[in-house]
Design a protein that fits this description.
Blueprint: E1 5-6, H1 8-19, H2 23-32, E2 45-46, E3 53-64, H3 73-82, E4 87-92, H4 104-112, E5 118-120, E6 123-124, H5 127-133, E7 137-139, E8 141-142, E9 151-156, E10 160-162, E11 165-167, E12 175-176, H6 178-187, H7 195-202, E13 207-209
Parallel strand pairs: 1-12, 3-4, 4-5, 5-7, 6-8
Antiparallel strand pairs: 2-7, 3-9, 3-13, 10-11
Length: about 210
């Protein structure tokens, strides 16, 4: 269902609401609405001390390198510069298991651009530094090895698949101000909002994990 993009203020408000919930409650609501493939695989867990994150998905896809001389630096820099505030960086790692795909430098760079956390079906390192930042990272495993010459970023802001869950890029569309939502709230004050409006609100935040 098409939906307009939230402005930064509205996105932050809705994300804060999700952070007060627990993932089981959100999963149950999605199940009841027929969205049964919205839960990440059991092996993706918070490996950082901070174990909750909410926001729109900024997606990425990477694959193992064909050569140890491969260099994805420019693609990585372009990806970082494309991050929009209030998003969660969500990565499919293409089956790579011999390196860390996220660490202190990615956490620092992403946070500086307003990214609220990382979710990846790969490895993470530098957890002491990440925990000092109080930055949430969900991953499949820990690994000390660098991704340089082992794994490359290939695409970002594309549809990815992690387990049975597909995560689509957050499309940039015409911003919608708070006034529209206030007007909608007045129209439906004292009664339950139509299902279409509830569904749009439910889908605003793609990831809320605990």
């Amino acid at each position: 269902m098409p939906s307009a993009t939230l402005n930064a203020e509205d996105l932050q408000e809705i994300s804060q609401r999700y952070l007060k919930l627990y993932s089981g409650a959100i999963a149950d609501i999605l199940d009841k609405r027929g969205h049964r493939n919205q839960v990440l695989p059991r092996y993706l867990t918070p490996l950082s001390a901070v174990n909750r994150v909410a926001g729109l998905a900024f997606t990425g896809q990477g694959y193992p390198c064909a050569s140890t001389t491969d260099d994805d630096t420019q693609t990585r820099l372009n990806m970082l510069d494309s991050i929009t505030p209030g998003t969660v960086s969500v990565w499919a790692c293409g089956g790579s298991v011999n390196c860390a795909h996220w660490g202190e430098m990615m956490s620092t760079a992403a946070r500086q651009r307003g990214c609220t956390g990382g979710v990846l079906d790969g490895g993470v390192r530098d957890l002491d530094f990440i925990n000092a930042m109080q930055y949430p990272v969900f991953a499949a495993f820990k690994c000390a090895a660098s991704s340089v010459g082992r794994w490359n970023i290939k695409e970002y802001q594309t549809t990815i698949k992690i387990g049975d869950n597909r995560a689509a890029r957050h499309h940039a569309r015409r911003p919608v101000g708070r006034r529209r939502y206030q007007q909608a709230g007045k129209r439906y004050a004292g009664r339950i909002a139509p299902r279409s409006l509830r569904q749009r609100r439910l889908r605003k935040v793609r990831f809320a994990l605990t």
